[in-house]
Every structure is written in C-alpha cells, then in structure tokens.
Specification:
alpha+beta, 6-stranded antiparallel β-sheet, 9 strands
Length: 310
Amino acid sequence: MVMKNFLKNEIKNTKQLFKILNISQQTLSAKQRNSLNDKGFVIIPPTTYILKNLKKLNKISEELIKIEGSKGGWEGKEKHYVVGKFFENGANRLGNLIDKHEVFRDLILIPEILAASYEVIKSDIKVGGVDLRNPLKDLGHQAIHIDWVPRERKSDPFIGVVCFIYLDDSNINNGAVRIVPRSHKKLGWPDEHVDIFKFHKDEIRMIAPAGTIVVMNLNLWHAGTKNISGEPRKTLFIDIRSRDQSQLLNFKKYLKTKTKKELNVLQSYLLGVRECDKTQKEDSIGPGKIYRKRFGNKRDDFQKKIIESI
C-alpha cells in the first residue's frame, strides 16, 4: 500500500501520516462525523481492501482459531494462563494478529478508520491492539461495559476508539453487539448509572453484513449478546488510542524481528515499534485491573454464572 523504502524514523506525526495517505476531514462525510461525535459510533461500508481480502481474512482467522484453541488471545497476559483455560469463556479469541499474517497489517492503514480515530482523539494516534472475537453457540452474552477507563470530567479528552470489522454477517441470532447511543458522553463507569447485567432501554443491535466497519468511541457503553444460532460472527478489533497512552499489547516486545522488518514506515509508526518510539514497560494495559479494584469481580462472576447455566 505504501512504498517500503522510506526510512523507518521518517514519520514525525499523524498529520504527516495523513498527508501521505491523502486523509483529510473529507475522508468521512459530515453525517458520519456527526454520528461519531453525537452517537459515539459510525458505520462505514466495506472498503476496497476489505472486499478484496474478506475471504482471505476469514480463512486465515478460521485456521488460527483451530491452531490456537484455548491459547488464543492470551498475548500480554500469559502469567494468567492455565492449560485449557480460554481467554474469554464463551468465545474464540485471537490476539497479536499483526504478527500472524500480513493480511491483517494493511487493515490499520484504512483511511476511513484512521480519519474516524483522529476525529475522536484529536491528537497523534497509535494502534493499541489487533484482535478477534467469535461468540460460541448459546454463549457470548456480556455485561454492559466500556473499553477504557471512564472520563471523570466533561473537560477530559476521549482517549481512543475501537474499530469492529465484521468477517461474517452480524444479526440478532448470532450475537449482534448491543450499544447504547450517546452513552460515551456520560461520566464515570456504566455501573454508576445502570444495572449492567440487564438490557438497556435505549440500546440498539448492530446488524450488519460481512465486511462492514464500525468505529466506536472507547467510552461508549456496549456488550456482546448470546449467539443463539451458533453461526460464526467473527469480528476483528482494532484498538486505536492517543499516542501518549500505553498499548493493549506491547508491540515493540511482542512483534517478531522478522515482522518488524516487513512493516512499511506507516505501519511501524502506527504500531510504535521504531527505535525512536517510547518503549512501554508493561506487556499489556487495559481497564480491567482498575475496574476490579473498584467493583471487584462482579462482571467475571456474571460470566461464570452464564457458563454454568448452560
């Protein structure tokens, strides 16, 4: 997608990256930008790259799910892994996809995704993670949650977005994600406003054909639902956040040397793996530890009860 003969340290900031990729405010329509800011999410039709590679993305993902089994998704959290224990009960998970096949790498350069990310973050950006989730039959239901720590003041900036790329059709029967529009504007955790284990009166289901992209504010309330039919609903997740924040996965540590050499200059910048990029101490950073410190293990206990009731 981009010439690979650029110097690895040449990209200085996100504006320079956007200039190379010809990304501007017009990359998204005014309606799409308004949806992202007002409702907290935007739906983007399949791009040329997605349409061209959808079958390949499905094939590689299915192969990885079979190969990794219960080990899938544990990158960065290996110290918690127990043989046979799934990263998420009730779902196939895959992590560190950048390292596992080149087809996943150009996903982080899709202009619409980057434009939507910058619209929310409004500062230099980087990729925090590239993962996959697929809810299993009669499982996959989640409590309402956010994917980062909440804002405490209205003046606090939004830190990032999560991008959903649907590899299969998403519908009511196979566990379509439920979201609560405009909830990203609320301060504090969802737990402080509603019963996170019940359906929300304002929630909607994300019904979309394979290839659809949804970019969602990390602070938008959402949750997975039960996969009744058992049909696959594989979804890729690209976490993009402010460049001064730690990553969900420490790519500088976890990407193989071979992978780093294969990345083009734009991918290297976005993944923060260049010599000039700050080295992260932690293997993985997410909101879970902070949430459990305040609310205990109630979400985990809820998931456990669901599994035990099957």
